[in-house]
TrEMBL record:
PROSITE patterns: GNAT. Keywords: Transferase. It comes from Velocimicrobium porci. InterPro entries: Acyl_CoA_acyltransferase, GNAT_dom. Residues 1-172 form the N-acetyltransferase domain. This is GNAT family N-acetyltransferase. The keyword Transferase applies. One of its GO terms (molecular function) is acyltransferase activity, transferring groups other than amino-acyl groups.
Length: 172
């Protein structure tokens, strides 16, 4: 298995995994990703910005993640808590694993990759958020060493359901 930067030709396979994740969230009764976000334009933009990565085995994309080094506007205001540092940070978005590969440690591999990549960019902090109903992701983040920080709100154009639980991680 390898993790590499996504290419334009990967878009259909990435979108297939995104649709699988959207369906899984829907089955769990979670409203996250249920309004057409993320869509092809979102993922295409990630690829063009070189912030989209894929985990590949034998030519098949099994998982995807977006790793950004830009400040996230949604993190400028946090409620009922605070981030543990105001230092520059990397951001993880749009992590998804193929339904056929769940519970095989692929998401853990993606997070480990993100931690190393962000550290290689000279940053010691990572931020990520998830829907308050996405209990599996919340548990996963805690298992990966992320700490809950408070509540943030996404911009309205991204999602009608804007409330998110924010987490951070310090790379030591």
């Amino acid at each position: 298995m390898q993790i590499r930067i996504a290419e334009k030709k990967d878009l259909p396979m990435i979108m297939d995994i995104i649709h699988q994740a959207q369906n899984a969230l829907k089955e769990l009764g979670i409203s996250q990703w249920q309004n057409g976000y993320p869509n092809e334009n979102t993922i295409r933009s990630d690829i063009e910005q070189a912030i989209s990565y894929v985990l590949v085995e034998n030519g098949q994309i099994l998982a995807t993640i977006s790793i950004s080094f830009q400040e996230e506007p949604s993190y400028q205001q946090i409620f009922n808590g605070s981030f543990r540092s105001n230092n520059p940070y990397g951001v993880i978005h749009r992590i998804a694993v193929s339904t056929s590969c769940k519970k095989q440690g692929l998401a853990t591999q993606l997070i480990s990759f993100a931690k190393k990549l962000i550290q290689n960019h000279g940053l010691n902090w990572i931020r990520i958020d998830t829907h308050e109903g996405n209990i599996p992701m919340q548990q996963f983040l805690k298992k990966q060493g992320f700490q809950y920080c408070g509540i943030i709100y996404l911009s309205e154009e991204q999602n009608a359901d804007t409330k998110r639980l924010a987490y951070d991680y310090q790379i030591l």
